[in-house]
Write a structure and sequence with these properties.
There is one protein chain. By secondary structure, this protein is α+β, with helices and mostly antiparallel strands. The chain has two domains: 6-125, D-amino Acid Aminotransferase, Chain A, domain 1 (2-Layer Sandwich); 132-288, D-amino Acid Aminotransferase, Chain A, domain 2 (Alpha-Beta Barrel). It has seven helices and 16 strands. A hairpin with a 2-residue loop joins strand 4 (44-47) and strand 5.
Length: 290
């Protein structure tokens, strides 16, 4: 991955129907999405020139926009084509794509009734989230200070920028303290997810994962569940409490950026990356074409 700051990179970004240079893909300082977090986005991966589950991601993007009462000026097919075009125009093969919709600077004020819903797609080279050595050992985590809110307190099923405030705060604090990621509990005290990845526990050969009632039902999460069931594993979605961590032999995370990554430690609980996680990693890598 490039070490060049994002604002100084070269390439083309699809912005409101046009390919514009990276340096010219700007918004006004009074953009509604900047002031009031009125934006939704996706993270999408491409492997060997093929975008993985593009349609699923775009469908979720539009669902998120609908939850936030946005009115996109482009349809799903146009955004899908934009993602493909960005890959081609930037000569990318293994990449991360970022489709984004936001309310513009046409009007300031909370409701923003006169704002347009703008759309962009950017893409850049992307490799593994963690080194091979760390993946072999498993990442380390701690329980974070913030909790996922109940559905009546936030649009929890939208991939909305505002919901990531506690993620950035928690991830930053975890890394400052020498951890790789942070575990979120919810308002009930139940285990939910990591800062940008879903969590699974392997208990006596079965795979347990929290019911996604107050957080995103991740696309990689659903993929991992399908792969696990195809491999003959029993997958149980249920309420998971912190004390359930003591029963787990393996723990792993799933997400677009993380793919499938083992966890070796959460707080005082230790786990050993094992056969279940290894099998699912192999099947996932085969599926995406790595």
């Amino acid at each position: 991955m490039s070490s060049v700051p994002f604002e100084k990179r070269e390439g083309l970004i699809w912005l409101d129907g046009q390919m514009v240079s990276w340096s010219d893909a700007n918004v006004h300082i009074l953009t509604h999405g900047l002031h009031y977090a009125s934006s939704v986005f996706e993270g999408v991966r491409a492997y060997n020139g093929k975008i993985f589950k593009l349609e699923d991601h775009t469908t979720r993007l539009f669902k998120s926009a609908d939850i936030l009462a946005m009115k996109p000026e482009f349809n799903e097919a146009q955004v899908n084509k934009a993602c493909l075009d960005v890959m081609v125009k930037n000569n990318l093969s293994n990449a991360y794509l970022r489709p984004l919709m936001w309310r513009g600077a046409e009007q300031m004020g909370l409701a923003g009734m006169a704002t347009r819903t703008h759309t962009m797609v950017a893409a850049w080279d992307w490799g593994p989230a963690f080194s091979d050595e760390l993946i072999e050992k498993g990442i380390v985590m701690k329980t974070g200070p913030w909790r996922r809110p109940p559905p009546e307190c936030a649009p929890v099923h939208a991939k909305a920028a505002g919901l990531y405030m506690i993620c950035t705060l928690s991830k930053r604090k975890a890394e400052e303290e020498g951890y790789n990621d942070c575990l979120f509990l919810d308002w009930r005290g139940q285990v939910t997810e990591a800062t940008a990845a879903n969590i699974f526990l392997v208990i006596n050969g079965d795979i347990h994962t929290p019911t996604p009632d107050c957080f995103l039902n991740g696309i990689t999460r659903l993929t991992a569940i399908d792969l696990a069931r195809e491999a003959g594993y029993k997958v149980i979605e249920r309420a998971i409490w912190p004390e359930d961590l003591a029963k787990a032999q393996e723990v792993f995370l799933t997400g677009t950026a993380y793919e499938i990554v083992p966890v070796s430690k959460i707080d005082n609980y230790d786990f050993t990356p094992g056969a279940v996680t290894g099998t699912l990693r192999q099947k996932y890598n085969l599926l995406v074409g790595k």
